């Protein structure tokens, strides 16, 4: 199985052509917009039918205290405030962007350990992989005295526990909106994708 490393639109186009790919389902992370743009461009150039499998975004519910921001830069600007204890759940690749706000104490929940030195002096790293439970995230936030949560609007159920926990604790959440995606056909469930594939002449096997 190949994961990533296609080398942009041209590399992906060559891979699809050389391997005789007839249909593409883009099931990448909602924030992996560059890959989705590359996939759409490559498929259009080759005339390959493609569809995005997109899990629905989270929406605020009663009791939520969201500050919605457009991107990482606006999230950084929103943290220009007095020192707090922040659960920063944005992924390893964005940590450096938050260096302008070293006053906070950050709890970083990451899938993989950081490769480089952390860009702020007060931080603790928790390496863990979801799905997470509400009771464990409640305990995590209480144990670390979290005042504020910063999260991408990834949608789905695997990472939603922290949002529910923040709601139950009355904590504010800085919610980062998803980046723009290319114009394409989309579905929100595997069943819908299978139906799309069947309707576009894909051989689904036995």
- Quick one: CATH class of the largest domain? Alpha Beta
User: How many separate structural domains?
Assistant: 2
**What is the CATH topology of the largest domain?**
Rossmann fold
CATH superfamily of the largest domain: Nitrogenase molybdenum iron protein domain
Q: Strand-residue fraction? A: 15-25%
- Strand order, largest beta sheet: 3-8-7-4-5-6
Rg result: 19 Å
**Architecture of the largest domain in CATH?**
3-Layer(aba) Sandwich
State the shape.
elongated
Low-confidence stretches: none
Number of strands: 9
**Average predicted local confidence, pLDDT:** 92
Helix content: 25-40%
**Secondary-structure element order, as H and E?**
HEHEEHEEEHEHEEH
Number of helices: 6
* Most strands sheet: 6 strands, parallel
Please give the alpha-carbon distance between the first and last residues. Answer: 21 Å
Structural class: alpha/beta
Task: Note down, in words, how this protein is organized.
The protein is an alpha/beta fold and 206 residues long. It has two domains: 8-54 and 181-199; 65-176, Rossmann fold (3-Layer(aba) Sandwich). Helices cover 30% and strands 20% of the residues. The chain has helices at residues 8-18, 33-46, 72-78, 134-143, 161-169, 190-199, and strands at residues 24-26, 50-53, 65-69, 85-89, 105-110, 123-127, 148-152, 172-176, 185-187.
